[in-house]
What we know:
The chain is 70% helix and 0% strand. The protein has 319 residues and is an all-alpha fold. The chain has one domain (5-314): Formate dehydrogenase/DMSO reductase domain (Formate dehydrogenase/DMSO reductase fold), CATH 1.20.1630. The longest helix has 30 residues, at 79-108. The two termini are 12 Å apart.
Amino acid sequence: xxxxxxxxxxxxxxxxxxxxxxxxxILAVLGRLPIDPWFAWPSFVIAFALVxxxxxxxxxxxxxxxxxxxxxxxxxxxxxxxxxxxxxxxYGPAGLFGLGWLFVMPDAxxxxxxxxxxxxxxxxxxxxxxxxxxxxxxxxxxIPQWFRRDVSWGYLTMSLAAGAxxxxxxxxxxxxxxxxxxxxxxxxxxxxFFVKARYWRGICTAAPTATAAxxxxxxxxxxxxxxxxxxxxxNYLQKEMGFHVARKHAEKLRRLAYITGLAIPxxxxxxxxxxxxxxxAGLAIVAALSGHLGLVVExxxxxxxxxxxxxxxxxxxxx
Length: 319
């Protein structure tokens, strides 16, 4: 598939924002989220900004962005519609939770029942929204690289990892350090790249799910190849759904994703446990920036390595 930059930005930006909101909601329930305005204000503002920017960028990928409201009416059958409905619904409890933490909690001093409910609702809706985003792709049977269960696990774990890295960086910059946040980030990073390693191994070793012979009803030992292509120049389907990345380039990008998305953040987080002051803040920023770079590379590969079965009619022998 063609790796559209708007969709890459959408999944990375909104995934990070939802990961931040989820983590802050869970920390609030556990009594580990600071009320300090120097931390709370930037954290909530950045989280909502990332979510909103990601959702707005997704509109750029629609054929008719001005008709986006119609997409929300198909929630019974479309994961895209469900993702939009859940994203809008999340603003309610998440917004009230953020406002309560910024304006009510500094005076209340303890987490009330309403705030607990808002925090739990925020966490659940964040998970549901990211899951719905992943299912936009994981539900597409014609694309074998996406029609996999580990696609959703990858989206969820990477959203949490990106959110935790960002919250950790903001905490270090504002003078708040909690060993729980970098620990969660390390666990999430390990889970995310375990899932991605399994995913990459799976798509490389999986047998073809469709062949050109099967496409024309000649399954079996018959080998079918195209003698005369059904076009004189590249068309939309080839450009959008037949994008191809060379295997050697894909392997290099995977190594880059491992190094920038897992190795560098993990090392800097470990070193950061024993650091303080400007050093701790610098290490946390490096971990966050490197982690997001790795996530962008991973997300580009996610789209670039996917092949639609329609390419069987344009010269491909199997997908």
